[in-house]
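Suppose a colleague, Dr. K., hands you the sequence of a protein chain of 237 amino acids and asks what its three-dimensional shape might be. Before reaching for any lab equipment, you can write down a predicted structure in token form. Begin with the sequence itself:
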Amino acid sequence: MQAVKAIRVSVLMTCLMAGAFVAGVAGRPPVRDPAAAPKFVLETLVPKQFGGWHELPAQGVQVVNPQTKALLDKIYSQTLTRTYANASGYRIMLSMAYGDDQRGDLQAHKPETCYPAQGFTLHSNNPAQLVTPFGAISTRQLSTSLGQRREPLTYWFTVGETAVKSRLQQRVVEIKMGLTGQVPDGLLVRISSIDDSTSRAYSVQDAFATDLLTAVSATDRARLSGLGADPLAKTPS
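The predicted structure, expressed as tokens, is then:
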């Protein structure tokens, strides 16, 4: 009986390994054509003025960006870094990084890694939900500091048009894209502000994100938010 049981276990393990191999091969997307035109351009996709926010001139803004340009350029195919202000003078730092191929070494470099690597202290890192009129986005909220500088931040990461909240979910989306012949691309959206009040910072960051998503087209909103199809979009009659 023990011999029969051992054979059954061996057969089961062989089947599981074979199934995993087939899924891996089937889910392996093709190599992206480096000459292909980008799906979108962050510089033009993101408006410089929207809602009650306007971009501040670069020469008038002194911002320490933990995600250094050299690192971003190595990992991503497009990056965007801007500082916005509202009528009361509150400043929001927006950073976006897009990688057209998230396989292997090109997988996103998350803020919880790069902030401490640049000398910041990470005080908290919690999952959160950004509730917008277009749906809820799975985000993470971090509280960081560098000396006297307190910088709470909110970020989310999308693969294709899906906001993912874990490495497992990211892998599932990548496999699904691979089965349809797509190369998994990724977009990291980070919104931060220098603020001693963490709760106030998160509240303003949520409002900023909602204003931004409201200002862009439904197609661009799906791309930026990872919400996929716009639930408010109506099918033409």
